[in-house]
Write a structure and sequence with these properties.
By secondary structure, this protein is an all-alpha fold. It is built from nine helices and two strands, in the order ααααααββααα. Strands 1-2 form a two-stranded antiparallel ribbon. Helix 4 crosses helix 5. The chain starts with a helix and ends with a helix.
Length: about 270
């Protein structure tokens, strides 16, 4: 199992880096659409819909995402799309209030329609942010995505080593407050390394303190995104969002933290 996880992780990293640095803008957007459609298919499983309804949902999400990137010029490499700030802001509001309320109340039997609507709020802004930020620069996007990865890895190891107090036992019993502290400690070091080793990729309007603040806010957002996807799986009675990635589950299991991180990153960085 561990060997399978490692091989899958390496393959995913190679595919991601290859697409990120070598595909043209339209190619990256198409790559993102594939991830978006797969994520929508898995999300429909959270709503327990099957057959034509599930496929119609995937088509609707993918068509909406494709239309927006085409209409705004993001498909061709445009990095300026001021109207998308409203989309990102709406997503951030959802993550600050809607997702946190959901995690506190954990509705026992949410309607399938509501779950599908939530999927559109979660998935489409993430896709748009990934496309727009990559048009600004692949290194910037990679550095922003890495915040979620560093936080996740640090939380896992810190939780295993020191975890005592459960973070959200009803949602994800394996997560602990010690893991969260480890995540913030690791991303502090990451922000310092980013500032020291890649100063040219620090957004000019942030500065050193602004970068640290952004990284820490993104770290907190990554925890919420991770927990929210876990809650959706638990309420649907699923262990993984899918089985497309051997040893890792589904696509949503790998991008859960990014769904809350990327819209917030785009809103701050693309001001």
């Amino acid at each position: 199992m561990l060997r399978t996880r490692i091989l899958t992780a390496v393959a995913l990293l190679v595919a991601l880096l290859g697409a990120l640095f070598f595909l043209p803008p339209a190619g990256w957007a198409a790559f993102g659409l594939l991830v978006l459609a797969t994520g929508a298919y898995e999300w429909a499983g959270f709503a327990r819909v099957r057959g034509p309804v599930r496929l119609a949902y995937v088509a609707a999400i993918a068509i909406a995402g494709a239309w927006v990137v085409y209409a705004t010029g993001l498909w061709w490499g445009e990095s300026k799309a001021p109207l998308l700030a409203g989309v990102y802001a709406a997503a951030v509001i959802f993550w600050c209030f809607g997702a946190t309320l959901w995690l506190r109340t954990l509705p026992s039997a949410p309607s399938p329609a509501l779950v599908l609507v939530l999927g559109s709020i979660v998935l489409i802004p993430t896709f748009l942010a990934l496309v727009q930020l990559r048009n600004v620069g692949p290194w910037l996007l990679l550095l922003l995505m890495a915040v979620a990865w560093v936080a996740d890895i640090a939380a896992y190891f810190a939780g295993r080593a020191f975890g005592r107090r459960k973070l959200a036992p009803r949602v994800s019993p394996g997560k602990s407050w010690e893991g969260v502290i480890g995540a913030f400690a690791a991303t502090l070091l990451y922000a310092l390394a980013w500032r020291a080793l890649a100063p040219g990729h620090v957004p000019a309007h942030l500065g050193a303190i602004g970068l640290l603040a952004l990284v820490w806010v993104l770290t907190g957002a990554s925890v919420i995104g991770d927990l929210f996807e876990s809650a959706m799986k638990r309420q649907a009675g699923l262990k993984d969002s899918g089985a497309i990635l051997p040893g890792h589950g589904g696509v949503l299991d790998r991008i859960d933290a990014l769904t809350s991180v990327m819209p917030l990153a785009a809103l701050v960085v693309l001001r």
